[in-house]
């Protein structure tokens, strides 16, 4: 993967670039790059756009990471995905899982649901909103699973696990919990619950209070907590 496929200005955050240099130089990432180029050459639409594949990393450099929230795949509809898990662009209908996230945020901290689904304000405060797979083909959920992204994002989680600062891992659902199963619980806080999807939210997500629990722990560790309020205008 080349730098021109990271931020629109062509530069991956230098801290992440250094930490992940071995991954970018590895054969599996070269294979992933070739796969994506082949899909584009075949006329397939890939989401998010190339400049946003690594948006989560660019908005949340390693030394700023306080919280990690793991997703699985980008949204595969027009105009939705922009590189942050669970987040959609301004003006796009709020997805059902995010509706439930907002519902729990309201119950937990009394924060009214935002009228948009744009979560960049969280990312800029230190919430790494990382999907396991960073690209998808339009209209085809999970189309890019098993192509190499999972190995890359495993490496990202491993680097976060090794960071000097304490980090909260919010793991919603069995997939996220398995992916981060190697995280050291003696150094980091691991919060597990059901996934916020409408199919599972009532099986332990609603009422799990991840936002207040994360902030209480960060405060105990001497780290500024996250302001989970989202700006009304974006």
The helical percent reads 25-40%
Read across the widest sheet, the strand sequence of neighbours is 3-2-5-6
Biggest sheet: strands, sense, closure?
Answer: 4 strands, parallel
Q: What's the number of helices?
A: 9
Overall average residue pLDDT: 94
Number of strands: 6
Taking Cα atoms only, what radius of gyration do you get, to the nearest Å? 17 Å
Helix and strand run: HHHEHEHHEEHEHEH
Q: Which properties best describe this structure?
A:
234 residues, alpha/beta, four-stranded parallel β-sheet, two-stranded antiparallel ribbon, 35% helix, 10% strand
Explain this structure to me?
- The protein is of the alpha/beta class and 234 residues long.
- Helices cover 35% and strands 10% of the residues.
- It is built from nine helices and six strands; from the N terminus they run H-H-H-E-H-E-H-H-E-E-H-E-H-E-H.
- A four-stranded parallel β-sheet has the order 3-2-5-6, with helices on both faces. Strands 1-4 form a two-stranded antiparallel sheet.
- Helix 8 links the parallel strand 5 and strand 6.
- The chain starts with 13 loop residues before the first helix and ends in a 14-residue tail after the last helix.
Topology:
Layout: H1 14-19, H2 21-24, H3 27-41, E1 46-47, H4 55-59, E2 67-71, H5 96-109, H6 120-125, E3 127-131, E4 136-137, H7 149-161, E5 168-172, H8 173-179, E6 189-193, H9 210-220
Parallel strand pairs: 2-3, 2-5, 5-6
Antiparallel strand pairs: 1-4
